[in-house]
From TrEMBL:
Location relative to the cell: Cell membrane
Membrane topology: Multi-pass membrane protein
PROSITE patterns for the chain: MFS
Major site of localization recorded for this protein: membrane
Organism per entry: Polycladomyces zharkentensis
InterPro entries: MFS, MFS_dom, MFS_Efflux_Transporters, MFS_trans_sf
The protein's name in its UniProt record: MFS transporter
Amino acid sequence: MTAVLHYRLLILLLFMIIFLIGADTFLVSPLIPLLSRELHMSVGQGGLLVTAYALAYAVAALVFGPLSDRVGRRKMILWGTFAFGLFSLLCGVAWNFWTLFLFRALSGFAAAATAPQVWASVGDWIPYEKRGKAVGIIAAALSVSQIIGVPAGAFIAGGLRFGCCLSLRLSSGGAHLGYIPVFIARIRPERLLIFYVLRDK
């Protein structure tokens, strides 16, 4: 695989990680009324699902950030995306409030092991003259996830059944469990830096 292809694949993968995590995050809020009916919980309990995710993310980010400095960004992203996919799948098959609460909190932990490392990896893996462009592309993924995630959740809550929500969660989880870890495992960021150093000489 050439260095140019490595660069493009790396940007695409980082974009997709932020997009899928963002879409999964923003999908929940519009679904709270539907989840409340399907899982026989109050709307107030449904709101705690957002809190569980956000609080777990905030606490875990303080731990996984320094840990990534020691074990490496690629390893953290690899296992973080795998864990996020697994817990997303479990959220999709949760059978009551407390199981969904637990899996949602674990999803927050996994997201904290993944998303911050995406931004840190830009500084580690992308040549200086390409970082602004890379950050712009990856940052757009968060906005795109809001554009798609929130309306998708509202559409499901407005006219479809819980099974459609489950299908979306399974799709998101499957993406993280499947192609993203496989391709990240093949990425060799050092080839990008070597390519651009040699090109500029």
